[in-house]
Specification:
alpha+beta, ten-stranded antiparallel sheet, 2 helices
């Protein structure tokens, strides 16, 4: 009998440690994102000020910088990943039962609404810039992006008057391969505005994690590959040793990335596309 009394406490300790580990991972990820955001904001405030402070008698920093045929650098960015959700017609009039609602305590259910909620993440990447002319550059910026999106479901179970709210967290780790054309405006002192547009191919490594659904937790899965149209604008600040840039950019997914299954969480959605807002800081 003594071994039985010893085993139970050990099991409780293991589950407790597991919960603490998961909580610590989320806390660490949030701290990294906040620290990166703070660092980038400080860089945005300090580096441009330095470039203006160095203008004595209209002396230009790096006056021949844009004449180089190519140059390299890196990017740090804060992103906000989100979805555009298109639900099926007559959504709330469709009843689901059986395996479609295996994680709900009821015999039937109706999906009332589906909303997307964004979360903050971060991006790191490498800049490769090819000069095409006085005003145009071709840029290839392979990047690694981390983020999370959330789908919020409102579900009526067994004609209950009070709907049930369910959240599905979808974590993503993207390998981004964007090819962009950059139009550079006229340089004014040590500042030069620009517009940027192009396409991006992304691979979501988060979809490759082999996790099994359970009756208590039905996952929402996404298709691994997606193509985006991108459009943005920014400013380049020429410093003594390098060029610092700030940029805002929107990325719109062109494909339906929802993996259909028999659950209520995917059957009620007609189309699910990605959209990502990104605040980028470049060092070149």
């Amino acid at each position: 009998m003594k071994p039985c009394f010893l085993i139970k406490p050990l099991i409780k300790i293991n589950y407790s440690n597991l919960r603490l580990t998961l909580q610590n991972q989320k806390t660490i990820s949030l701290k990294i994102t906040r620290t990166l955001a703070l660092t980038l904001i400080l860089s945005l405030l300090l580096l441009p000020a330095g470039s203006f402070a160095q203008r004595h008698g209209d002396v230009l920093n790096n006056p021949n910088y844009d004449q180089a045929p190519y140059h390299f650098g890196f990017v740090l960015a804060v992103n906000q990943m989100n979805f555009t959700v298109k639900t099926k017609p007559n959504l709330s009039n469709t009843f689901y039962s059986g395996t479609s609602i295996s994680d709900l305590n009821g015999d039937s259910a109706r999906l009332l609404s589906v909303d997307a909620k964004p979360s903050l993440g971060f991006t790191i990447g490498i800049v490769s810039n090819l000069r095409l002319g006085n005003n145009f550059d071709l840029r290839f910026i392979p990047s690694l992006s981390f983020g999370q999106r959330n789908l919020h479901y409102s579900i009526s179970i067994d004609t209950n008057s009070r709907p049930t709210s369910i959240n599905k967290d979808i974590q993503s780790t993207f390998i981004d391969l964007p090819l962009m054309v950059k139009y550079k405006g006229k340089r004014i002192g040590n500042v030069r505005p620009y517009l940027i547009a192009g396409v991006k191919y992304s691979i979501d490594l988060g979809t490759q994690k082999k996790k099994k659904d359970s009756e208590e937790n039905i996952r929402v899965d996404l298709i691994r590959d997606d193509t985006y149209a991108e459009l943005g604008a920014g400013f380049d600040f020429y410093n003594y040793w390098f060029k610092f840039g700030t940029e805002i950019k929107m990325s719109y997914g062109l494909s339906n990335i929802l993996k259909k299954d028999k659950s209520i969480y995917t059957q009620g959605i007609d189309k699910l596309t990605s959209k990502i807002f990104q605040l980028t800081f470049t060092f070149e």
